[in-house]
Design brief:
Largest sheet: 8 strands, parallel
Helix content: 25-40%
Number of domains: 2
Strand order of the largest sheet: 14-9-8-19-18-17-16-15
CATH architecture of the largest domain: Alpha-Beta Barrel
Number of strands: 19
Bound molecules: acetamide
CATH topology of the largest domain: TIM Barrel
Distance between the termini: 24 Å
Length: 558
């Protein structure tokens, strides 16, 4: 094997195409051939009309990006006829033009693509706009890093792509990243950068954790105090141990206009946004905004929380107005986010306030239970039934953190998704056995806000520095899971909690390059994953991060 690699390297050197091929995530099948496709003169992207909308925008964006980043003239040409485009069709184009030819194959998977780069032309085949998008992402990753970063680079003298044949599709349909903006708020430019990096790694779900004890970050028309009151607190830092709240007024939120802008940005990158309002626990900011109907003890003072940890000030699930509140908020989320899923949280919800509240005690009796966790499930059931009454285009599936499994989930049915974080592997099996879908986001090692090294220079965050790039990469999703449960496993997700992280640059530093490791677990067939190989392919990403203007952990870069 080593000899073959050496021979290949010599060949590349002799032919002058020592261009590295370091794709992340590694494609399912790749064969490297001799030669390269040269972008010069005019490059015509020929593409068919397909029923599904979106291909025009995919080609348009690729053309724009290539023009900006390379200066080579790339144009598009939509062809009316034929699914399969032969050279005969191309004759209609000016002789001498180079061609990138897109063809439709409806039998391929939803996100699959084939990419064949030869010196004379590039062929791409896919069934959907998403498939063509991923092929372009791969194509850009085969070029100098500035192309993916979306910036020009005057030092590059030749724009070429090494000859390869790639046949690719993801292992899992869910390849997610969650950002907690409840604890700290970063703003839409930061979110766009994150979406760009996710798209570079073919990730397709941005789970936006928008509410917390420490802040409510999304404008809800019907409840303006959620952002007038709930988005602001009297401390930037969150108290924990010796760290005390600093008294600095801090906050922020996304207006409906901001959300619409981000939704469009994500859609262009084939990323679905999964908004999360974490209710009825982790809700002190909401309770502080409307204590008169959300609180279990409205007579007491409620403020947006200044501390880390788990607040006991949860929503009074026995108050009909609180149930109506939840339904109204969900209605506005449905309107704002035209995607398949809404996350209602469900983690770490203390029941102490319910246990001391007469309304909650009475409701528990009424539903015939002695387990206060079942009040939480009763609350969710009412929201689920509310959504079920809506027309088809307003239907949304619900996701919950895995603590929901601690109650009797029968009233919720099995058409929900469990996001498994604590005891993730076991919780996911439990969910799958109950007939529910599940997503693996194991706290260790997929909480990529945790310290990634033991160096004293590391920024403050959770953990002890054990969640290194290698540790994250080495997690094996769906390991030893009985085959009959596999269809319930939707995929993987990295989560980022921000109790300690005030600055966007620190989010980037901790997130990268570990996000790339999770992306590869979500995309690449298990048998093709190899940490040493990944590490080698990762080296070029430092340049991409620098050009993109994002910080990253330097530990594994030489
Ligand atoms: C969680 O980490 N509390 C979901």
């Amino acid at each position: 094997m080593k000899k073959i690699l050496f021979a290949l390297l010599c060949l590349f050197s002799l032919t002058g195409i020592a261009q590295e091929i370091s794709l992340i995530p590694q494609p399912a099948v790749m064969k490297v051939n001799d030669g390269k496709f040269l972008f010069k003169g005019k490059v015509v992207v020929c593409y068919p009309k397909i029923k599904e909308s979106g291909i025009d925008a995919v080609v348009e964006n690729f053309v724009k990006e290539m023009n900006t980043t390379t200066g080579v003239k790339v144009v598009k040409n939509r062809l009316k006829n034929g699914k399969k485009l032969g050279f005969d069709v191309l004759k209609s184009n000016k002789k001498g033009d180079a061609h990138i030819v897109l063809s439709l194959d409806e039998n391929m998977g939803a996100e699959a693509y084939k990419l064949s780069v030869a010196p004379e032309r590039i062929d791409i085949t896919a069934a959907t706009a998403a498939g063509f998008f991923y092929a372009f992402q791969t194509l850009k990753q085969l070029m100098p890093r500035n192309v993916m970063a979306g910036v020009p680079d005057e030092n590059v003298k030749e724009w070429s792509v090494p000859a390869v044949f790639i046949e690719d599709e993801p292992r899992f349909g869910w390849r997610g990243f969650m950002l907690d903006e409840g604890r700290h708020f970063y703003g839409k430019e930061e979110i766009k950068k994150i979406l760009d990096v996710m798209a570079a790694y073919k990730m397709n779900r941005f789970h936006w954790h928008l509410t917390e004890d420490q802040g409510w970050r999304i404008e809800i028309k019907k409840y303006p105090k959620l952002t007038e009151v709930g988005a602001w607190r009297d401390s930037k830092v969150l108290g924990w141990g010796d760290v005390k709240p600093d008294g600095q007024r801090y906050g922020g939120y996304y207006t409906r206009k901001d959300v619409k802008e981000i939704v469009e940005y994500a859609k262009e990158r084939f990323i679905e946004i999964v908004p999360e309002v974490d209710i009825p626990g982790h809700s002190q900011a909401a309770v502080a905004s409307y204590p008169e109907f959300l609180s279990c003890d409205p007579e007491n003072k409620h403020e947006v929380w200044l501390w880390q940890g788990v607040s006991g000030d949860v929503i009074n699930v026995a108050n009909p107005k609180a149930v109506q509140f939840a339904k109204d908020v969900v209605d506005e989320l449905i309107e704002l986010f035209p995607f398949g899923y809404i996350h209602l949280g469900g983690d770490e919800c203390p029941t102490g306030k319910w246990e001391r509240n007469a309304e909650c005690q009475a409701l528990l009796k009424e539903i015939g239970s002695t387990n206060y966790r079942d009040l939480q499930i009763h609350f969710y059931r009412q929201i689920k039934e509310h959504i079920a009454q809506k027309p088809a285009d307003k239907q949304r599936k619900l996701i919950f953190w895995n603590e929901v499994l601690h109650g009797n989930t029968e009233p919720l049915g099995d058409d929900i998704t469990i996001m498994a974080w604590i005891g993730a592997d076991r919780a996911a099996v439990d969910a799958a056995k109950r007939g529910m879908n599940t997503i693996l986001s194991p706290q260790i090692p997929y909480y990529i806000n945790r310290r990634q090294s033991k160096l004293e220079t590391e920024p403050l965050s959770q953990g002890y520095g054990d969640e290194t790039v290698e540790r994250v990469y080495s997690y094996k999703p769906m390991n030893d899971v009985p085959a009959e449960l596999h269809p319930k496993y939707m995929g993987v997700q990295a989560n980022f909690w921000t109790e300690w992280v005030e600055e966007p640059e620190v989010v980037q530093y901790l997130m990268l390059p570990r996000l790339a490791a999770v992306a590869e677990a979500g995309w690449t067939p298990a048998e093709k994953r190899d940490y040493n190989d990944f590490l080698q392919r990762l080296q070029g990403e430092a340049k991409y991060y620098q050009l993109k203007g994002v910080d990253y952990g330097k530990h594994v870069f030489k």
